[in-house]
Q: What sequence folds into this?
């Protein structure tokens, strides 16, 4: 059988797992639709790619999509022959591998520099083989590569007016690392061709490789027989132990033998799982509640992390709070009052949000957040960015208490937590009639996506209103959930 042609992305799939490469070629029907949040990252990748072309401006784009590869190869050849100095998306095939290089730049001695653009903020291990296969193919097609570069986002960049690509990116010379991979690249390629020539899917079990370095698109297929609460859910259990349990034929957490080497926390979860009985340390919970002073302010932020900063003074991937829900309880047993802030999706939400907090949260009382270090960090960043509100915001940080504390310290472990202590796990276990199921925005990822959609300008007025409503319902549920959890804890002690 003639060798199949693979692309660079298939080469990377093969490196992660031979089965992934095989399934991608013969069972594409098993790939689920691309989730919307992944699509947002793709879109951001295109924006980053466009900025990279501004960095190396004056080049020519091979303007053909993946349906027009012969045309792309032909155009690339024409650009090279017409002495083009910079080419974007140049396309080559050699030895049954197809690659498209983000940027090729010609040097005065006739050699070329290969520049791969990534939306990460550092060079990662998986970037070296990615560039090595490109170099192998481009050189095989007849060009001489002088240097190989990885251009990634500079996480120290601060937006000050229009994005300056020279400050936004950092370029790192990875020529030596790429050269070291030359033989390995050829060997891997040969192995991949053998995998693809086989009639049967490679016999490879699940493991750490399913999510590292990338989340595999066939997880839904390969993991379908794993029970709901399995050995893979045991908190912080190392992969060698997971593999050992799998080799023993043990998949359900409750089937793990008590003498299997687990740490104290894991053993406690195992005991709760086997007995189905919650562990409740009332003294510790009472101590936590004793630290709270009224009025209680329950807060929850929603944030976005744009790769390309949207607002002045912000950095790439900075967490930008755009929404805050606030429930206030003046004294024990009193009715709660709800207030909320949501950005308008047109301007920087942070000044309004900072003002909202300062205006509505008094200097006395505890500020309760779930996983409070996140909220504390956001408030500190707001204080640094908006000096006019600095003192009032710093004061808020001192008032913060973390409602996650009794759950993280395992003072309260419920069998339905399944080894987790996020509010999404704790709430339905403690307050069964309050769940996130059925909400249009049901988690932080949904909320980010919803606000990105609002920012995009693609929503109609009615869609904008509905999205804002969905966001408010979700964020309000998070703080109301905290109110109910505190009530539940008070009821226990
Ligand atoms: S889910 Fe895991 S085992 Fe299955 S193809 Fe992907 S990486 Fe390979």
A:
């Amino acid at each position: 059988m003639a060798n199949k042609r693979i692309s660079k992305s298939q080469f990377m799939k093969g490196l992660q797992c031979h089965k992934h490469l095989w399934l991608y070629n013969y069972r594409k029907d098993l790939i689920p639709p691309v989730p919307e949040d992944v699509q947002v990252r793709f879109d951001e990748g295109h924006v980053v790619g466009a900025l990279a072309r501004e960095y190396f401006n004056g080049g020519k784009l091979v303007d053909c999509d993946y349906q027009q590869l012969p045309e792309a190869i032909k155009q690339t050849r024409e650009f090279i022959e017409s002495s083009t100095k910079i080419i974007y998306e140049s396309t080559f095939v050699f030895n049954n591998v197809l690659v498209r290089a983000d940027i090729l730049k010609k040097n005065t001695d006739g050699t070329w520099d290969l520049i791969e653009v990534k939306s990460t903020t550092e060079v990662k291990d998986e970037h070296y083989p990615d560039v090595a296969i490109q170099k192998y193919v481009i050189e095989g097609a007849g060009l001489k590569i002088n240097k190989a570069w990885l251009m990634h986002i500079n996480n120290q960049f601060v937006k000050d007016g229009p994005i300056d690509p020279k400050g936004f990116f950092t370029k790192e010379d990875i020529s030596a690392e790429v050269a070291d991979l030359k033989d390995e690249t050829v060997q891997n390629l040969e192995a991949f061709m053998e995998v693809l020539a086989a009639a049967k899917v490679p016999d490879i079990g699940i493991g750490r490789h399913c999510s590292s370095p990338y989340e595999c698109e066939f997880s839904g297929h390969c993991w379908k027989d794993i029970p709901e609460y399995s050995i893979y859910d045991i908190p912080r259990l190392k992969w060698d132990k997971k593999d050992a349990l799998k080799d023993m034929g043990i998949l359900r957490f409750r089937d793990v033998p008590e003498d299997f080497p687990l740490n104290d926390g894991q053993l406690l979860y195992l005991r709760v799982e086997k007995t189905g009985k919650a562990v409740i340390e009332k003294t510790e919970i009472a101590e936590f509640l004793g630290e709270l002073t009224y009025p209680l302010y329950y807060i929850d932020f929603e944030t976005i992390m744009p790769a390309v900063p949207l607002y002045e003074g912000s950095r790439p991937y900075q967490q930008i709070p755009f929404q805050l829900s606030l429930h206030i309880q003046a004294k024990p047993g009193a009715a709660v009052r709800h207030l909320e802030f949501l950005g308008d999706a047109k301007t920087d939400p942070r000044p309004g949000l900072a003002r909202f907090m300062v205006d509505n949260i008094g200097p006395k009382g505890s500020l309760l957040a779930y996983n409070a270090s996140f909220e504390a960090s956001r408030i500190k960043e707001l204080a640094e960015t908006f000096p006019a509100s600095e003192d009032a915001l710093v004061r808020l940080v001192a008032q913060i208490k973390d409602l996650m504390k009794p759950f993280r310290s395992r003072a309260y472990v419920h069998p339905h937590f399944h080894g987790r202590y996020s509010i999404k796990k704790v709430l339905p276990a403690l307050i069964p009639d309050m769940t996130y199921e059925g909400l249009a925005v049901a988690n932080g990822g949904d909320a980010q996506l919803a606000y990105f959609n609002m920012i995009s300008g693609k929503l109609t007025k009615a869609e904008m209103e509905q999205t804002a409503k969905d966001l408010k319902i979700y964020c309000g549920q998070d703080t109301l959930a905290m109110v109910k959890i505190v009530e539940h804890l008070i009821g226990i002690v």
